[in-house]
């Protein structure tokens, strides 16, 4: 079992070194955001399916009579999620700048 775990770890290390094309990274992020939006709002009682939420977020017409609140909730959560990501990116940039300002030019800027 330990040998298998070591093989898995070695494979993971190789995969981590392979750069993904920006389009693939973008699509993966988008899919993760979609699922996060759907499941987070679903927990709160939203009745849209994953496919319906995707159609709403891609701007396609979705005949959801009587579920306008659900549509609005999904759109609002999506917008909020994008905003949080913007703030996190800005925080990362500010952290790197601040570390350089206080005399640590070798700092990576990683806010963790």
Tell me about this structure.
The structure is a single chain. With 112 residues, the chain is an all-alpha fold. It has one domain (21-101). 71% of the residues lie in helices and 0% in strands. The protein is built from 4 helices and no strands. It has helices at residues 2-17, 22-43, 50-57, 68-101. Helix 2 crosses helix 3 (50-57) and helix 2 crosses helix 4 (68-101). The longest helix has 34 residues, at 68-101. The radius of gyration is 20 Å and the shape is extended.
**Helix fraction bin:** over 70%
Q: What is the total domain count?
A: 1
Number of helices: 4
Total beta strand runs: 0
List low-pLDDT spans: none
Ends: how far apart? 33 Å
Sheet with the most strands, sense and barrel status: none
Strand content: under 5%
SSE ordering: HHHH
Rounded radius of gyration (Å): 20 Å
Structural class: mainly alpha
